[in-house]
Amino acid sequence: MITDHNPEQPVVKAQNVTKQLQGPGGTLTILETASLQLAEGEVTAILGASGSGKSTLLGLLAGLDEVTSGTIELFGQSLSGLTEDQRAALRAGKVGFVFQSFQLLPGMTALENVMLPLELAGIRKPAADAAHALKQVGLSERLHHYPGQLSGGEQQRVAIARAFASQPKVLFADEPTGSLDQATGSRIIDLLFEMREQTGAALLLVTHDERLAARCDHRLLIEKGRLEPLS
């Protein structure tokens, strides 16, 4: 059973999360007893070397993958025991995603890409809300352009519009500036924080970008599967 969110509860809470995979050489531990909390409106950066488990942790916290042991709560609801469909229902309209590779559907226009999750969440006026979100990220003139007709920075702005269009409570971003040059990346960072100010969403960011990490409320480092706070 999925319960309503209590605003006094953390948006995301992980306790002693371990993720292991079985490989040819035996058991591989990707994460070991990782714990964190993210309150409403907070911004936390997760840093670490490639292959350290950052993206794996993000996927676990968002309910896209299942833990080996430990517990994760999203909006006060334990993810343990929920089916994939139940986890998707819990996320619908309340969780946004931004990825390094944009993850836009090439056969859909910018407007249609932003509309899609709104339609899936049952939003009544998806086209109007999508157009408003694209206007907020400065793409009013690009509504009917396809991803292949947009620059990398414009594609990431579409992805940000899509992530924030439903007014989510939390946004998960996996290397949101990783595919962009420094100047474009700086504009995307500014945009992420502007949209966060407007919506009040909590942000959990996986990044190599020190400029982005420096603007966050909290910074965590993953090393050898261990999650530790950075001073």
User: What fraction, in percent, of the residue positions are helical?
Assistant: 25-40%
What oligomeric assembly is this protein in?
single chain
Total helical elements: 7
State the end-to-end CA separation: 39 Å
On the 0-100 scale, what is the average pLDDT?
91
Reported for the largest beta sheet, the result is: 6 strands, mixed
Number of strands: 10
Identify low-pLDDT runs. none
In sequence order, what are the helices and strands, one letter per element? EEEHEEHEHHHEHEHEE
Output the strand order for the largest sheet.
6-7-8-3-9-10
As a percent range, the share of strand residues is 25-35%
**Structure classification:** alpha/beta
Our Rg estimate from Cα atoms comes to 17 Å
Label the overall shape.
globular
Layout of secondary structure:
Elements (H helix, E strand, L loop, with lengths): L11 E12 L2 E13 L4 E6 L5 H8 L7 E6 L2 E2 L5 H8 L3 E5 L10 H11 L5 H11 L15 H13 L5 E5 L7 H18 L2 E5 L3 H5 L3 E6 L2 E4 L2
Helix pairs in contact: 3-4, 3-5, 4-5, 5-6
